[in-house]
Every structure is written in C-alpha cells, then in structure tokens.
Amino acid sequence: MKKILLCLVLFVSFAAFSQSINDYQYVIVPIKFDIFKENDKYNLNTTTKLLLQKYNFKAYLSTDDIPTEVINNQCSYLTATLVEKNTTFMTKVKLVLMDCKQKVLFETEFGTSRNKQLAPAYNEALRMASKSFDKLNYKYNGSIISTVTTVVPVATPVPTPTDNVSPNDNKNSEIFYFAQPIANGFQVVDSEPKVIMKLYTTSQKNVFIGIKGTINGVVLSKENQWVFEYYENGKLVSEAINLKF
Questions:
Q1: Buried-exposed string 78-115: b where 16+ CB fall within 10 A, e elsewhere
Q2: Using CA atoms in the order 146, 19, 33, 36, what is the torsion angle rounded to 10 degrees?
Q3: Where exactly are the structural domains of the chain?
Q4: Candidates 3.40.50, 1.10.490, 3.40.720, 1.20.58; CATH matching 9-136
C-alpha cells in the first residue's frame, strides 16, 4: 500500500512539473553560466541551447537576436542555468529551468562524467543530464503568449511638493507589482503576470515617466515608498505602489 501511495505522489509531482513547463515555449540561455567566469565556457551554453531545441523548445542564447515581443516580456520565457556538484574524481551537472520569479519549473537529474579533462567531462555530463527531457514529454500548450504594446512616452510636469496628496490614499497598498527591464525603463506587471504600466527613465535617479493606460504621470520614490502621481481634472492624484525591482 505504501508503495502504491509513493508511486501516486511521484506521478502527481511529475504531472505538475509537466503542466507548468508546457506553458512555455521560449527558453533563454545566458552566454555565461554563474559557475564559470568565461562566456560559453567549454561551449556549454551553445550546447545547452541546441539540446533544448532538440526537445522542441524555442531556445536562444542571451546574445542572439531574440524576438522583441519575447525579450520585452520577461515572464514569457524561462531562463536556463547550470548547477554543478563536482567531486574529486567526478564532474556532476544538472540543467535547471526557472520562470521570471526564479521559481524552478523543471530540473534534470545530475549527469556525471569521470573524464579527467574538463571540457569533455562537462559536455558528457551535460548530455547525460539532458536525457531527463526524454521523460518529460514536453509539448507547448499555448498558455503563455508574448504580447507587447508599444507606448510613446509623453513628457509631463513634475508635481511640486505643495501639491502632494498623501500616498496613504491608495486602496491597493497590500498588492505588490514587479518591475521588469525593457528598453529605456521598465514594465510593471502584476501576479498574473499582466502589464499594468510602463516606466521610462529620466535624468533623475528614482524618477520615472509613468504611463498607465491613457494616464501620463511620474513615478518617484518618497520616504522609501514608490508613488505614481498624475493630474486628473486639474487635481493632483498620488497613488502608492508597492514596486519590486
């Protein structure tokens, strides 16, 4: 009975992994893994890209010409990283795929090699680790589609301190939003993730031109609190935003 329950737990866990990973079609492989100091060390980054493509992912190196609608929406793709657990006589690595919130959606088993030469050892271990994808049966289900709306920033006057309305008026103070880098600034997404506004850099640190739908204003930091300020019917409105960069 215990064996049946254990098998059921393992099956459910694996199914959860598969369901999550199938939501994504794009994977970006950094040109340099954190475990090395050099770009594409031992050609591992390029090999990782090719292995992912073999298993039907649309994989790119971070230095490739990545589609704009993908790179501008950080939560539309997974990021690959390589983890090592070497011993004196063995090279051990595994491949990990994470979403934009650094949540691990899939990781291979450790691949191993006893080759004394590092370049062939790492490549052999990586290829062995990639065999975990054989059991994954990955197939993109179309759940996450990259969408980007092009917005042209419009200059707006910076409100003076005397016009300020208390940030405490904001009713959504417990909701957190995430700022993701884009060209010339950030896009702000909620937990879905859904893009709710764009921030464009200015010459001032911690001051951004903020565009939310048809509303143009500024987003700035006041007393360790991010605030979105704009004019509505000639009156200054100040909304506190819990931003995480």
A1: bbbbbbeebeeeebbbbbbbbbbeeeebbbbebbbbee
A2: 170
A3: 9-136, 161-244
A4: 3.40.50
Are the beta carbons of 99 and 105 closer than 8 angstroms?
yes
The residue whose two tokens read 């419009």 is 154
pLDDT string in tens for the chain (245-residue length): 545 444 444 444 444 444 479 999 999 999 999 999 999 999 999 999 999 999 999 999 999 988 888 888 888 899 999 999 988 899 999 999 999 888 999 999 999 999 999 999 999 999 999 999 999 989 998 876 544 333 334 444 444 443 444 444 444 445 778 888 887 888 888 776 788 888 888 878 888 888 988 888 889 988 888 899 888 887 888 889 888 87
What is the spatial distance between Cα 241 and Cα 212, in angstroms, rounded to a whole number? 12
User: What is the rounded distance in angstroms from the CA atom of residue 59 to the CA atom of residue 25?
Assistant: 8
